[in-house]
Amino acid sequence: MPQGRWETAALSGAALLCLALRRRWPVATLLGLAAVLGALPAAGLPTAMAACTAGRAAAARPGSGLRWRLPALGGATVLPVLTAIPDVGLGMVLSAVAVAGPGLVGTVMGQQDRLVTALRDKAAAAEDASRLAERARIAAEMHDLIGHRLSLVSLYAGGLEMTLGKLAPELRGDAVRLRAMAGDALDELHEVLGVLGPPDDAQTDAAGSRADVEALAGASSSAGAQVRLDWTGPDVADTASSVRRALDRVIREALTNAHRYAPGAAVTVTVTVDERQVLVRVRNTAATSPPTSSGTGRGLVGIRERVGLLGGEVRTGATDDGGFAVEATLPLVTPTIASTPKEPAANASVPAPSHWPRLAAGALGLVAVAGLLVLGLRYAYPPAEPSKYAESVDSIHRGMTHAEVVSRVGVDSAATRAAAAGHAPHKPAGTTCLYPYSAETVRDGRLSLVRYCFMNGRLTSIDRFDVPVETG
To answer: What's the pLDDT score for residue 142?
Structure first.
C-alpha cells in the first residue's frame, strides 16, 4: 500500500485516468485499475465501473478478440490479490466486490444489448420485407390490370387499322401509330414494374367468379379477338377470395399474352370446377400476324407464384398446332398463408427509450458496491477483541511492513485520528501514520491510543498516549 503522499497522489491520478479512458480501451483500463486497487482500496468504485464496462463490451461483441479478452478479464480478478500481498484477505475482498461482481453485471448488460440489437434488426428487416411486399403487390396489380387494358387497346387499334385500310386509307397511319404506341406502353410498363414478389390475397367481391370471367372473355371478343368460354361445374363466387383472385389473374394474364404475342389467333378458355379443385385452361391457336412486342416472362412467373402459394400448379407450353396453352390447377381447400405484415404508418414514431432508469440503476449499483466494500473491509479487518488487543499490540515491533501491522491492529480509524488531534506527539518528519481503532477501556476519563508511523513502508516509531474522554 502507498505510504507517502506522492505515491497516493500518483496512484489516484492513474486510477482517474483509467476511469476516463474506460470506454475507449475497456479491458486495458480495467487491468490498470485492478493493479492499482490492491495498493489503493479507495479505487474500488472506479474499478467497479471499469469492470462493468469491460464485461459489457466483451458480451456485446463476442466475436471480436474473444480469445484474449477472456484471459484478460480473468487476470483482472487476480491482480488485486497480487498487489495487496501480503494482505491477501484484502485483495480477495476487493477482487470479488470491485472486479468479479461488477464484471458479471456488465456481462449481463452486454447480452441484453445484443438481444435488443437483434430485435431491432429483426424489426427493421420485417419493415423492409413489408415495404418490398407492398411494392410487389402494386406491381402485380399494375401488370395484371393495366397490362390487360393496354393489350385490349392494342387489339382495338389493330382492328381499327384493318377497317380504316378499306374505308379511309388516309387515316390508316394514325391507327398504325396508335397500335405501336400501345405496344410501346406495354413494354415501358414492364420495365417500370421491376421484379414481382409474391402477390397478396386481398379480398375482392367478384374477381374470379363466373360473371367476372364471362366479362373478361366478352371484353376481348368486343375488341375483335376470337374468344370462347367453356365453363363446366358450379360457380366459384362463394369460394375463398384467394382462389377466385388467382383464377382471375391466370385467365387475365393468358388472354393478355394471347393478344400480344398471337394477334388474330382464336382463344379458348376452359374452366372445370369440381368439389376438390378448379382446372383452368387457356389455349390459343397460331398467330395470323407478327406479335406487337416481345415478352419478358414476368407475368407467367407472377401467376406461378400466386398459384403456388395456394398449393396449386401452373403448366405452360406450345401446342402441336403452333399455338400456346396455359393450364392451372387450383385446390379449393388452400393451405394457410401467413399474412404480410402491414406497413407502419408514415407518421408513426417510436418513442426514444429514457436514460433515467439506466442512470438510476447505475447509481444504485455504485451504492451497493460501496456498501459491499465497507462490509468486505470490515470482514477483512475486524476490530480487535479487548482480550486480544494488548497481545496484538505487544507483538508489533519496528521494521514491520504496513500490511503486517494492519493485519494485527486493523485499518486506520477516522474516529481515532480525530480523537488524537491535538494530543498525539509530534509526527516524525517524512512519515505517514496509522491510527487504528482502540479496544482499550476508558479509565479515569482518559483513553489510551497507539500511533504507528512508517517511512518507506516500514514501521519506524510506535507512540502511546492518552486522550481525555468525556463521560456522561
So the answer is: 66
Distant-in-sequence, close-in-space partners of 194: CB < 8 Å, separation ≥ 6: 135, 139
pLDDT of residue 342: 43
- Low-confidence stretches of the chain (pLDDT < 50) are 1-3, 195-204, 336-350, 384, 386-387
End-to-end, the C-alpha distance of the chain in Å comes to 39
Residue 353 lies in a domain: no
Domain CATH for 196: 3.30.565.10
Picking from 194, 201, 207, the residue whose alpha carbon sits closest to that of residue 136 is: 194
- For residues 88 and 81, is the Cβ–Cβ distance under 8 A? yes
Would residue 237 count as lying in a domain?
yes
All 3 cell numbers of residue 447?
483513553
Of all helices (H) and strands (E), which one includes residue 117? Answer: helix 101-141
In angstroms, rounded to a whole number, what is the distance separating the alpha carbons of residues 160 and 172? 8
Nearest CA to 337 among 202, 181, 217, 433? Answer: 202
Distance CA 182, CA 159 (A): 13
Tell whether 326 and 374 lie within a shared domain.
Answer: no
User: From its phi and psi, is residue 205 left (phi > 0), alpha (psi between -120 and 50) or beta?
Assistant: alpha
What is the model's pLDDT at position 407?
A: 78
Question: 163 with 307, same domain?
Answer: yes
Which amino acid does the sequence have at 160?
L
Global pTM value: 0.39
Q: What is the CA radius of gyration of the chain?
A: 44
pLDDT of residue 460: 93
Number of structural domains (the chain) is: 3
Q: State the amino acid at position 403 in one-letter form.
A: A
